[in-house]
Amino acid sequence: MTAPRRPGRPRAAARTALLAALLAAVVTALAACASIPTSGEVQDGGADVPRTGEIGFIAAGPNVDDTPDEIVRGFLSATQAGPTTAQPFNVAREFLTTGASQAWEPYSRVLVLDGYPTLSTDDVEADATTATVRARVTVVASVDERGVYTEEPRPSPSELTFELGRSAGEWRITSLDDGLLFSTAVFSQAYHLTRLYYPTPDLTQLVPDVRWFPRTTWRTNAVQEILAGPPEWLAGSVVSVVPEGTALAIEAVTVADDGTVAVNLTEQIDDASSDELALFSAQLEATLVTGQGEGRTVTLADRSGPLAVPEAAGPRLPRTEGDALALVDGRLRSVEGRELVPADEDVSLAGLDPTALATGPGHDPVVVRDGADRVVRLDPDGTQDTLLQGADLLAPSVDRYGAVWSGVRGGALQVVVASGQAYPVTAAWLEDVVVTSVRVSPEGARVALVTTGPDGTAVRVAGILRDAAGVPTGLSDPVPVGASVQGVTLAQWQDEATLALLGQDSGGDRTVYLAGVGGLAGTGGGLSRPVPGVTGPTWVTAAVGSTSMLALDAESVLHIRQSSALWPALAEGVDLVAFPG
Fold it and tell me: What secondary structure, in 3-state letters, does 51-102 show?
């Protein structure tokens, strides 16, 4: 397992300098992208951070006289290149014995770190043939073998052990933990945030499920996961249209020079109907092409050749329908761009004490919470229909079916359908927690809940189970979101897989945060991040598909998010505001 010394290979200090230089290049590129223009017309902004180009890492193998800690440091440095190269981990395995190389499973998990590992080596005698190197790390998130991202509630110290042996004078790693280590600064460059899309049961909407895959294989990984079917938490809220047993006929999804993404499938795909084939193609288009550049298309083939996919209008991506409504001086206003104009809805708020506002797609229906104990629908003819009554009701949310979600804080969630009939929405995991905020996603397949319980405050997103008539009957086991954000009181959908949270910063002040359902896009390692610029927010609302976000402060001033840190004031004296949803 020895290898001749290779001239010009960097030693430990040089490797560290090389990695630092690469990271500096990443930071410099981002700074250039985020610079403030000094000329030209004034334009609205909304994007957080533009996507950067994919960056490859240069790996260097071991030297004949490397010490145990230099071997481990070199190995960790070489692993950074694995997810971004066509021959992953070939150089990294040079630091391992044959047995260790065969046993090591790099993609079994990824630990996302705050900073870099700190290495320490047990005392090693000059003639020793074994050594132990310990790597102390601070874990802030992890990714499992299927690309599922989990954010830690707080940075978690951990220690990894590397056992080494010496043969013919050279040290090699003989035993190590499976997986990879990446700092937050490097993770988003090595792994690709991928949204897998699945259709709703009525086949009109697409629902995203965020995963993180190695950059060189993400399309192949994505197709394999779609063929495997929806994740457990969405299994009852979406459907699979691929015939059972369908798999990739060759190991990789390929991309031609003209941008065509070729997906070759086994013969089971021939059992799909024309409608199913069109729907599956739409799934793959959304997953593999959307946001990946112009000119890309997806082609399907079986062992006999290309498949003829019929042209059809596919399901659409989640999107908020309609402008925000604001309550000003007892009257509704529509927030159109940066202006508040009289709303088309001629409803009566006479005799009400509105404390929360909600509306459905296209502002149908309009709902308010009256005080703390009544949810009222405001009809266009001026009537007021009581939908729910009870002590301390949740601020309502309206789904795309026109159903109103609320419930007594500490009691069961309640959904009132368009006919006025109320139904409980139950789940075993809700029995030990108190729901304090509810918000349904635009496509109606997911719900974001803020809960308090024995373990404190948490944000969870669950799949909505519905009967044949579309009436919600229960919730799936949820996935955690924004675990590192403290003191959350409100969760709103800001993008199809992103929540805007109203939480607390380290000083206890109210702050708006963004948190990804499955990890957040950008350069922060997938972690939740604050959105500065508005002081003391008391409410936040957002529109999926447009990046629009509004916030109210304690002085009843309405702010609009212009950029990542700018929230200019739109109006004063605003009591309530809500986008449809």
Answer: CCCCCCCCCCCCCCCCCHHHHHHHHHHHHCCHHHCCCCCCCHHHHECHHHHH
Q: Which of 336, 328, 338 is nearest to 573 (CA)?
A: 328
The ranges assigned to domains in the chain are: 12-35+43-190, 192-306, 324-578
pLDDT in tens, 28-71: 333 333 333 434 443 333 443 333 444 556 788 999 999 999 99
Tell me the C-alpha distance between 89 and 278, whole Å: 38
Which of the four CATH numbers 2.130.10.10, 3.10.129.10, 2.40.10.10, 1.10.4100.10 does domain 324-578 have?
2.130.10.10
Give me the pLDDT at residue 290, please: 64
Is the torsion defined by CA of 265, 269, 274, 280 positive or negative? negative
Q: Is the pTM of this model over 0.90?
A: no
Q: What is the mean pLDDT of residues 539-555?
A: 95
Long-range CB pairs of 223-228 (<8 Å, 24+ gap) are: 223/248, 223/253, 223/263, 223/284, 223/287, 223/288, 224/248, 225/146, 225/147, 225/196, 226/196, 226/197, 226/198, 226/283, 226/284, 226/287
Return d(Cα 52, Cα 55) in angstroms, integer.
8
Residues 6+ apart with CB under 8 A from 41: none
Q: Would you state the structure tokens that stand for residue 20, as one six-digit string? A: 């630092």
pLDDT of residue 345: 78
Residue with the two structure tokens 């021959």: 87
